[in-house]
Design goal:
- With about 350 residues, this protein is an alpha/beta fold.
- The protein has 2 domains: about 240 residues, Type I PLP-dependent aspartate aminotransferase-like (Major domain) (Aspartate Aminotransferase, domain 2); about 100 residues, Alpha-Beta Complex (Aspartate Aminotransferase, domain 1), CATH 3.90.1150.10.
- It has 9 helices and 14 strands.
- The strands form 4 sheets. The chain has a 7-stranded mixed sheet, sandwiched between helices.
- α1 crosses α6 and α2 crosses α6.
- It starts with a strand and ends with a helix.
């Protein structure tokens, strides 16, 4: 049976990316060695790193004055590294969900945090608007896509201070004006590769402005100077990222991917609105195109477990919503084919006929 993988992360990868990675695990580029056993200092792995960085810059149209790093620790470590390197006195944060809250918690260890706006009053089902970014802060931090609550920021804000963005779950899903950001970071395990590597896009004028000493491994300058190889990097996940970027370029890049993602999301949102059993959880103008969250209407709440079982029997995986929201979450990342979305829609229609 074909599997339809709606997991929020680690999530679906393109089949050819998995197959090409598997080949490299057995042998990289006919060199007689696995990508997992060659030195990160070798010319063979340096070529992998160079191409990955080059494709990253090409596909996102990254300006010349930015560096692309591949680090460990996930986005969660970046919650600490960002303020460690940038927060001298005060930082501004937009609170739009669980991961934004975690980032705020870490920043408070290093200085004052101004939460400029929050959507916690409605369980984070919308993106706040009409907030002011204080000009007296060291930076402004946002989380562009909120996987748990199904909301997304599509605007590249104009900020009077360096803007920092956690783009773990929507990187490469749409064009981004990188020049409006000081740092963009994220875990790879949504749209880029497997768990184990974190990307950081950082503008080269941001560093060296805090008073504190920064431990070597937590200092961005260390990794810029070392070309992401101060210590042994996560070589295999980086290789899978390279295969993903090759796949994305072959498809036509982020503008084509955005068109495909919008089409998938619209199909599913239309069915949620039409179906008598379901209702979406995010406000319409804030709805994510990466994580589509919905629940059973109140009168059908007792059917949630039945629907999950029903979809599982049809080969669908990863549809259970986060425990803080409940219901269902269909993660429609780049690698999820339209046919999987259509299979879910067909299952929703069939379930409706059985129970409505």
């Amino acid at each position: 049976m074909k599997k339809h993988n709606f997991s929020a992360g680690p999530s679906i990868l393109a089949r050819e990316v998995i197959e090409n990675t598997a080949k490299a695990v057995l042998e990289l580029n006919d060199i007689g060695l696995s990508v997992m056993e060659i030195s990160h200092r070798s010319k063979d792995f340096q070529a992998v790193m160079d191409e990955t960085v080059a494709l990253f810059k090409e596909l996102l149209d990254i300006p010349e004055n930015y560096h692309v790093l591949f680090l460990g620790g996930g986005a969660s470590l970046q919650f600490c590294m960002v303020p460690y390197n940038l927060l001298n006195k005060k930082a501004a944060y937009l609170e739009t969900g669980t991961w934004a809250k975690k980032a705020i918690k870490e920043a408070k260890f290093f200085g004052e945090v101004d939460v400029v706006a929050s959507s916690s009053d409605k369980n984070f089902n919308y993106i706040p608007k009409d907030f002011q970014i204080p000009a007296d802060t060291d930076y402004f931090h946002i989380t562009t896509n909120n996987t748990i609550f199904g909301t997304e920021i599509f605007e590249d804000y104009d900020s009077p201070v360096p803007m920092i963005a956690d783009m773990s779950s929507d990187i490469f899903s749409r064009p981004v004006d990188v020049s409006k950001y000081g740092i963009i970071y994220g875990g790879a395990q949504k749209n880029l590769g497997p768990a184990g590597v974190t990307f950081v896009i950082i503008r080269d004028d941001l560093l060296g402005k805090v008073d504190r000493q920064i431990p070597t491994m937590l200092n961005y300058q260390t990794h810029i100077d070392g070309g992401s190889m101060f210590n042994t990097p996560p070589c295999l996940p980086i290789y899978t990222c390279l295969e993903t970027l090759r796949w994305l370029k072959k498809l036509g890049g982020v503008k084509i991917m955005q068109k495909m993602n919008l089409e998938k999301a619209q199909l599913l949102y239309d069915e949620i609105e039409r179906n008598k059993l379901f209702v979406g959880t995010a406000e319409k103008d804030s709805r994510s195109i990466m994580n589509i969250c919905f629940v059973m209407k109140d009168e059908y709440k007792d059917l949630e477990a039945d629907f999950l079982k029903f979809t599982a029997e049809k080969g669908m995986s990863g549809l259970k919503g986060h425990r803080s929201v409940g219901g269902f979450r269909a993660s429609t990342y780049n690698a999820l084919p339209k046919e999987s979305v259509q299979a879910l829609i067909d299952a929703m229609k069939e379930f409706e006929k059985l129970h409505a």
